[in-house]
Amino acid sequence: xxxxxxxxxxxxxxxxxxxxxxxxxxxxxxxxxxxxxxxxxxxxxxxxxxxxxxxxxxxxxxxxxxxxxxxxxxxxxxxxxxxxxxxxxxxxxxxxxxxxxxxxxxxxxxxxxxxxxxxxxxxxxxxxxxxxxxxxxxxxxxxxxxxxxxxxxxxxxxxxxxxxxxxxxxxxxxxxxxxxxxxxxxxxxxxxxxxxxxxxxxxxxxxxxxxxxxxxxxxxxxxxxxxxxxxxxxxxxxxxxxxxxxxxxxxxxxxxxxxxxxxxxxxxxxxxxxxxxxxxxxxxxxxxxxxxxxxxxxxxxxxxxxxxxxxxxxxxxxxxxxxxxxxxxxxxxxxxxxxxxxxxxxxxxxxxxxxxxxxxxxxxxxxxxxxxxxxxxxxxxxxxxxxxxxxxxxxxxxxxxx
Amino acid sequence: xxxxxxxxxxxxxxxxxxxxxxxxxxxxxxxxxxxxxxxxxxxxxxxxxxxxxxxxxxxxxxxxxxxxxxxxxxxxxxxxxxxxxxxxxxxxxxxxxxxxxxxxxxxxxxxxxxxxxxxxxxxxxxxxxxxxxxxxxxxxxxxxxxxxxxxxxxxxxxxxxxxxxxxxxxxxxxxxxxxxxxxxxxxxxxxxxxxxxxxxxxxxxxxxxxxxxxxxxxxxxxxxxxxxxxxxxxxxxxxxxxxxxxxxxxxxxxxxxxxxxxxxxxxxxxxxxxxxxxxxxxxxxxxxxxxxxxxxxxxxxxxxxxxxxxxxxxxxxxxxxxxxxxxxxxxxxxxxxxxxxxxxxxxxxx
Amino acid sequence: xxxxxxxxxxxxxxxxxxxxxxxxxxxxxxxxxxxxxxxxxxxxxxxxxxxxxxxxxxxxxxxxxxxxxxxxxxxxxxxxxxxxxxxxxxxxxxxxxxxxxxxxxxxxxxxxxxxxxxxxxxxxxxxxxxxxxxxxxxxxxxxxxxxxxxxxxxxxxxxxxxxxxxxxxxxxxxxxxxxxxxxxxxxxxxxxxxxxxxxxxxxxxxxxxxxxxxxxxxxxxxxxxxxxxxxxxxxxxxxxxxxxxxxxxxxxxxxxxxxxxxxxxxxxxxxxxxxxxxxxxxx
Lengths: 402, 350, 283
Hints:
Largest sheet of chain B: 2 strands, antiparallel
Radius of gyration of chain B: 22 Å
Strand content of chain C: under 5%
Largest sheet of chain C: 2 strands, antiparallel
Structural class of chain C: mainly alpha
Number of strands of chain B: 4
Shape of chain B: globular
Order of helices and strands of chain C: HHHHEEHHHHHHH
Oligomer: heterotrimer
Distance between the termini of chain B: 39 Å
Membrane topology (chain B): Multi-pass membrane protein
GO molecular function (chain B): branched-chain amino acid transmembrane transporter activity
Subcellular location (chain B): Cell membrane
Number of helices of chain B: 15
Strand content of chain B: under 5%
Protein name (chain B): Urea transport system permease protein
Strand order of the largest sheet of chain B: 1-4
Shape of chain C: globular
Strand order of the largest sheet of chain C: 1-2
Organism (chain B): Nonomuraea soli
Helix content of chain C: over 70%
Structural class of chain B: mainly alpha
């Protein structure tokens, strides 16, 4: 009897699941274009990704206010990746196959991108990925609007070299971005007469850094290159500072700490340390004044803007521009039209490299100020051509060979 | 004459009973067969995923519901199965797996070589977890580690394995895990027809395992298992060895989880350490509790219901899923500790 | 060599953090058999209390004790008291509670971490140990002494021990075990609140805070033995030192694995932890 009831209930579930699928189909009806937004709204990554979603929604709103794309309004379909890579793949499939969106803006971690990549490639759909990452990838169905390694890591190293920092210590979270970044750093160091004194990884979400700080303090490097991710940065900087280490004597160059994270870390703990990005809230361009004002007007005056948010915001505009140029939302046509598109964005001129679908971006090094904002102290002068496989750097030739 | 009359009546009653009992399995069978026609490929794929989890849940139902061993580490066994299968699939492509290329590994590690053989991979997926569970069980149950201690121990085991997998990026793909698979035995995994076939495979495996587990529970051994759950020391005094009974059950449930992992990978197309951790294991335990832990069918039902609910709720209210999930556990645990099956049973007997 | 010597105080200070997060659990788990997965979220509540009282670090320790304690009390009254004798069910119940509390924190305070300023008098340090670490060690010692005095010197404390050692006998002797349970849960949860305030000195303050500490806290309790003050102290110090030296010689990931493995192995020799309440009862 118990069995039979369970079976009946299961049957009902199956039927219900079946009904659910017959729902929303078809797209672009009634003059609308559906676009997918897929970020973690829950779980550990929500800290970072929620504001990227906000920036993307702002861009959609602005584009609609200006008359939409091809005379049609953009309608965002928002899904939660829940900080879980298989969920990203599942929701991407849902957006493509059920909602039939024209494109998807989404992802943050490398793992979420790697999980979504096969979904987009097999379905021949388009993903715009807004975060700096470890390179060594150029999927024909992904546009990368954040920096690749030669637009962030290498300029960061150039800056340290200029500052006369010869001995560096590498600290990172244990996942693919820090490990790849550190391989590049070590190759760079060998070629440029720098010395890597140590390389340490901690699990994601790690909060106990006293031993690691002790190791750093004993090694006495000129600078620390920090690829820690998320909450670990808070613990690391708090414990780094309370061990008596200062930004003057031992600067920590971070590549995953932006304006948003500074509050959580505590301005006292991180002020004076350098970061490497392509955009800061203080970047002086007309487009940025407009972006910062619009963002604060929509989400609150105390909100800050950061590099990944700006890259997400840009992604929507760049896609819209490509659609206008192609005259259709059809994926292959949009891809073809996208190459060479150049827009004045908050970070300055951004040009799509049609070959690898990355962006030309200007590298900027900034110092964290006591008001929590970041002041630019160095930039690359002009947008750097994206080079995800570092083919233009002879010293990096050994990195990617199978 | 009188006698035959009675016999006939008994016969008729028996027949009616059999028919009544058979009607539900037939109905479910029909629905399982009809599912591919009722839903599109994407939803069918999701259903196949829930059924994979249902296999793990069946094992949890056996170990926890019948045997009283609350295991929070089924993800470990699921992961071993999943990774074995993923290694096989990766080697199918020929050449070095993609993640090794970007991790700077130049030569296929020796550990990987035998996984090019599908029989070896599948055997490892099932026997590996069983072996590990047996070893763990022999160590732990002999020392009479049980109840909450056992739960926390399995939890620590899951956490440790996740950290190990993440740390060996060149060998395991690190946090990313493995994804981007192409073919299974020369069938293109991206094809809808392949996925439909996989769905049937998963459904049949689940059905067979369910029938097997039910036989086991109804056997003498099953009664002994329940006795161990309800009074381990008394069973010991009767001359049985509870440690052996528990170890065997634990190994069976581990084997189920391993097989489920091996099926999960081609269905969903990814395996990552996140699936092995404490949270997914706990979610499945809760699914079993929601379905009804004392009935094996409840475990299966719970996994499908919770899987479906998670998808449906997170599509409707992306932000509020945790509230709903949390509230559901609290309500079920306080109001209906025997889960949906308990509620149904009470409704029928009332 | 210097670095090696430094690891000793570092290990003890890691142990102090472990002790603080686990102290409350030894009682709720030890006395009542409740596996409180929401303990981590009570720690989080303490940390947010410190956030809400900027510049009042020491008073916030007291306030956090009562805030987290009150949350524990509500949980005990509304749900857990219906679960006595079903310890494994409390695990699932409290896990549901922890999910709800995490999302609540996210909605109330936002997903990003918030800033809790450490008081100025905690800046600086002696040798490798910063003052804030010394403060945490002092706080851990003070908490242990406080709990010990409470258990040994007060009427309520003696009742608590009585219930812990033999619930039925205590009930027969006229002790209102329900009231004692309430009080135990209040104190156990309150200690989590204190731990939360202390953790703002060294770690992030955000909705996921609890999840970073809960597994470690349970390991300490299991290794130390249920409801055992000295067990918890020794286990925390031992695991802290093991962690510190294992990480020194290898790396943070491997150190965590070593600690987990050590606890699993240790339970082979002492399945009930370091210290146990001796009893002739079977189960």
